[in-house]
Amino acid sequence: MAQVTFKNNPVTLVGNEVKVGDKAPDFTVLANDLSPVTLKDSEGKVRLIASVPSLDTGVCDAETRRFNEEVASLGGDVAFYTVSVDLPFAQKRWCAGAGIDAVHTVSDHKDLSFGEAYGVYMKELRLLARAVFVIDKEGTVTYVEYVPEGTSHPNYEAAIEAVKALI
């Protein structure tokens, strides 16, 4: 299992660590309108999925904005999701205030389905660890980054290059 810290304190990740070459696990999260969203909803597209502790923090805000800008320029063959345990209403408010349009913010607050399927659920905090996954059009994981310190930024360039390699 990946080892991560949050504010330099070790946390326990619950679920299954996802690795390059794995078939991407399905999950059910909630869209901002409370409708269910699954991995299959974006079938046939390259998926960039970023899990974050909360959109209401500086690093998560900056990360989502950065990936939003990058993905918006890549065209319609890429689906970008930011997953957190923030309530769908808070995610909707954040997107409206940030002018975000290329990202789908989805909430894992109800069942922690994504958190457990991708091994990013931090047991001690009931938050998701910061991680980035790229999944090809056939549903195979081609890039994984479990960010070692939850308050640090991911490797944006590597993730975007992994996406570009698939389109």
TrEMBL record:
<keyword id="KW-0676">Redox-active center</keyword>
<comment type="similarity">
    <text>Belongs to the peroxiredoxin family. Tpx subfamily.</text>
</comment>
<feature type="domain" description="Thioredoxin">
    <location>
        <begin position="18"/>
        <end position="167"/>
    </location>
</feature>
<comment type="subunit">
    <text>Homodimer.</text>
</comment>
<dbReference type="Pfam" id="PF08534">
    <property type="entry name" value="Redoxin"/>
</dbReference>
<dbReference type="InterPro" id="IPR036249">
    <property type="entry name" value="Thioredoxin-like_sf"/>
</dbReference>
<dbReference type="InterPro" id="IPR002065">
    <property type="entry name" value="TPX"/>
</dbReference>
<dbReference type="InterPro" id="IPR018219">
    <property type="entry name" value="Tpx_CS"/>
</dbReference>
<dbReference type="GO" id="GO:0008379">
    <property type="term" value="F:thioredoxin peroxidase activity"/>
</dbReference>
<dbReference type="InterPro" id="IPR013766">
    <property type="entry name" value="Thioredoxin_domain"/>
</dbReference>
<dbReference type="InterPro" id="IPR050455">
    <property type="entry name" value="Tpx_Peroxidase_subfamily"/>
</dbReference>
<keyword id="KW-0049">Antioxidant</keyword>
<comment type="function">
    <text>Thiol-specific peroxidase that catalyzes the reduction of hydrogen peroxide and organic hydroperoxides to water and alcohols, respectively. Plays a role in cell protection against oxidative stress by detoxifying peroxides.</text>
</comment>
<keyword id="KW-1015">Disulfide bond</keyword>
<feature type="active site" description="Cysteine sulfenic acid (-SOH) intermediate">
    <location>
        <position position="60"/>
    </location>
</feature>
<keyword id="KW-0575">Peroxidase</keyword>
<protein>
    <recommendedName>
        <fullName>Thiol peroxidase</fullName>
        <ecNumber>1.11.1.24</ecNumber>
    </recommendedName>
</protein>
<keyword id="KW-0560">Oxidoreductase</keyword>
<dbReference type="InterPro" id="IPR013740">
    <property type="entry name" value="Redoxin"/>
</dbReference>
